[in-house]
Amino acid sequence: MKNKPYDLFKMLLKTVFAEIIKVFVKDIELTFPKVIGDYDFINHFRKIGPRKSYKLAIYQNKTGKKAIAKMISAKIKSYHYYSLLNEIAIYNTLNSATDRLKKNTPPQYKDVYIPRLINTFEDGFRLISLVEFVAGEVVQNYSAKKKLELYIKITNYLNYIGENLTKAERSQISVRKSLNYIVLYPLLAVKAVITYPASLPYVLVGMIRFLRNIPIVLKNSKSSLIHRDLHFKNILTCENGHALIDFQQMVFSEPLHEYITTLRYFWYGYKRKEFGRLLLAEIIKKNIKRKKFNELFQSYAINSVTHGLTGSGFSRDIILGWFDFFKFSLNSDFTKFQTKNIL
Length: 343
Ligand SMILES: Nc1ncnc2c1ncn2[C@@H]1O[C@H](COP(=O)(O)OP(=O)(O)O)[C@@H](O)[C@H]1O
Ligand SMILES: [Mg+2]
What we know:
It holds the Pfam family APH. It contains 11 helices and 11 strands. The strands form 3 sheets. It has a 6-stranded antiparallel beta sheet, covered by helices on one side. A 3-stranded mixed beta sheet has the order 5-10-9, covered by helices on one side. 49% of the residues lie in helices and 15% in strands. The chain has helices spanning 8-24, 79-101, 144-163, 167-170, 178-195, 200-220, 255-265, 270-287, 293-309, 316-331, 339-342, and strands at 35-36, 39-44, 55-61, 66-73, 112-113, 117-122, 126-132, 224-226, 235-238, 241-244, 251-253. It folds into 2 domains: 8-132, 2-Layer Sandwich (Phosphorylase Kinase, domain 1); 144-342, Aminoglycoside phosphotransferase (APH), C-terminal lobe (Aminoglycoside 3'-phosphotransferase, Chain: A, domain 2). Magnesium ion is lined by residues 233-234, 246.
């Protein structure tokens, strides 16, 4: 199987094409193969989360080692196919990089674990990844303070790995430049309004602000290795600490994008907001000295909310939370923010 980072625009074109042919050709029902390498199919695995774009299953080898398989249609190659391809490339790269860096890894990161990619499978119909199964719990029940410590540690560790990749490893990972966000934004905006018509005023106001900030974003964005879907369902407890999973979205891109997207996820509900407030204080502390920080925050928040609105099936509470986050981002002057007012 080719193990290249996907080309964003090729992927977009193919996704549009896939959506069109889906109207005429019904995709076949996918079934898991009985055997992948020396692993046997055991049972299907229930997926947590609102979107069900792929199937999961548990496999096991003769020695009793378990693996989790993620399967997606390869017949209609849409966005989901390319993001699984990306996840496979990321697992390969992170597995080899963390092996190589093992001896030199700073001690504070030693308890963060990246599961091993065991095998991949592709035929004309399906693409499957087989990853070591981590028999842990999700860390959703940690206190807000403990969550923040873990979150910072994981993002710092990813940044460390990103900075220490070889040239060959680096070439396996896609780069999402600020220009990519700008070109993609109008498409997101259209899809957001189609999916949630009530978002029209927000999208229009966001569009104006986003366009105005373009030169600033182009000039001031940075790049590091980011997960892009970092929340506490994607962190599992494991033997020697915590395992990070779900690498479909991982790219080199602006680190604020990571933090702001996580912040958006936590912008509703009482308990979640506690972590959100801590995270906001951390974002401000970390970035306050950056040039044009307000504009950067606004632009990545507008982009993140608009991106969120392109996914269907979210509850009213979640959507209202995102609208609230949007207003907050556009109306705040973070350079004058007193963290004591947030906490
Ligand atoms: N390596 C793994 N070990 C144990 N469980 C896993 C592993 N990878 C995924 N899972 C389980 O499958 C679920 C969905 O996988 P994930 O990669 O997070 O996909 P999604 O994009 O749907 O969130 C996870 O929430 C977790 O419960
Ligand atoms: Mg997940």
